Here is the input.
Amino acid sequence: MIIHSLHYYPVKALAGHSPDSWKLEARGFQHDRRWMFVNPAGNFMSQRKYPEFVHWRASVVANDLVIESLRNDGESYRIENATGAEREQVEVTLWNDTFQAGWINDPTVDELVAQMGIGAARLVFLAEDNLRPLDPDFAKQGENVSLADGFPYLITNTASLEDANQRMDEKMAMSRFRPNIVVKSDEPWAEDNWTGLKIGKANFRTPKPCARCRVITIDQESGEQRIELLGELSRFRKVGRKILFGMNGVWDGGAQIINTGDPVHPV
Here is the structure.
């Protein structure tokens, strides 16, 4: 097995980037899901309710955050010092986790939110001293996670997608699953037996499979939803009450850079 592709998404739910090489950090890839939009109550906003997020991509440029439209208008908003300045701390909630994050109180964000058409929203940043502990059932002491749904890394398998597509009424792109690391393999569902991986010279624990939600029903280019996809996948990937695709991962030391083409070995 080898790394097929790498992906990171600076703002939760927005489009991301697919570099050939990227830096590993304990909470997830460098710049991966360090920002997110929250509603006035502090609850996270996702594609589940706002599929239009697929039409916007975020990039980190020095200490600034640039969010650009992927539509023909190509509008771009540069939020200066989105990482460097001390921010007013606000309480935010992401699934069952409630924690502190920095509010980016900037008129550029207000203009962006209005253009996105997502209603009242704030943009928050998870700084290094904003701690969101990893699920204690799977964490080592002191491990934290970014603004990903649950774990620092999501790892998927090309052979599993190929097998799934042979069973589905309509083929799916891997982008629907919003992975971080895509492994090229000849064995469908090999990940079901992983407990850890050696990726290049980096070590990963793979503590549990990823339970999927309706985000996979959203085309990551058009934003169109095909609700029945989740039901189709459940026909052969449902375990208990969960529909599984991919493995959650935690970086466990070793090299800090991984690259497309790096060898991948179960451990």
